[in-house]
Every structure is written in structure tokens, then in C-alpha cells.
């Protein structure tokens, strides 16, 4: 299991165990992380699983694909650290990952 910490917009830290091969979004949904809506269920056709990758993890996580960048246009308050959590596969290299949930989803 890969440890992932979600920091809600109110500052609450929710520590989870993610199953390798699943996504950061699926892990959030399975752990009822507030603010991760995931309306499209992970199909990368909305922006309701938008997160900010903690600066310490940005290089390890990597940047968005072109399709993901297009969908981020529909997110609110997009930053350089913005990603759609449905597009981040959980893997051993992400053990300890910290993501921040925005105050509002697209």
C-alpha cells in the first residue's frame, strides 16, 4: 500500500493507503475525502477531481498530459501544481505523496 495524504481546503489532513494501480482520485473516493467530487468517474472528461501536488512531490508525480491540460481549463484556480487526481496512478514511488484539495471544483 502507498500512503497518500490529502489536505482539505480547511487544513484537515486525511491519511490513506492507496492500492498500487488505482488512482489518487479512486483512493480519495474510497476514503470519503471531502472536495473530491469525481463526476466523470475518472474518464478525464471533467475537472472535479482537481488537486494541487505538494511542491516536494511535483517532480516525482510529473506533469499533466495534453488531454489533462485541456480539462484543467475547466478547473477553478489552476496553478502550476494542478493535476487531475484521476490521471495519477498510485505506485510505490508515490509513497508519502501529499496533495491539496482546492476550495472549489470545476
Automatic annotation (TrEMBL):
Residues 2-105 form the 2Fe-2S ferredoxin-type domain. Signal peptide: none annotated. Gene3D superfamilies: 3.10.20.30. One of its GO terms (biological process) is P450-containing electron transport chain. It holds the Pfam family Fer2. Coiled coil: none annotated. Its cofactor is [2Fe-2S] cluster. InterPro entries: 2Fe-2S_ferredoxin-like_sf, 2Fe-2S_ferredoxin-type, Adrenodoxin-like, Adrenodoxin_Fe-S_BS, Beta-grasp_dom_sf. One of its GO terms (molecular function) is 2 iron, 2 sulfur cluster binding. PROSITE patterns: 2FE2S_FER_2, ADX. Belongs to the adrenodoxin/putidaredoxin family. This is (2Fe-2S)-binding protein. It comes from Devosia sediminis.
Amino acid at each position: 500500500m502507498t500512503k497518500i495524504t490529502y489536505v482539505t481546503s480547511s487544513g484537515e489532513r486525511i491519511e490513506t493507503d492507496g492500492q498500487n494501480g488505482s488512482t489518487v482520485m479512486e483512493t480519495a473516493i474510497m476514503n470519503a475525502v471531502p472536495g473530491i467530487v469525481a463526476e466523470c468517474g475518472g474518464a478525464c472528461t471533467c475537472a472535479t477531481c482537481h488537486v494541487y501536488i505538494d511542491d516536494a512531490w511535483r517532480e516525482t508525480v510529473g506533469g499533466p498530459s495534453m488531454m489533462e491540460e485541456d480539462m484543467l481549463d475547466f478547473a477553478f484556480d489552476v496553478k502550476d501544481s494542478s493535476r487531475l487526481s484521476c490521471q495519477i496512478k498510485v505506485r510505490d514511488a508515490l509513497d508519502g505523496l501529499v496533495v491539496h484539495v482546492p476550495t472549489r471544483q470545476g
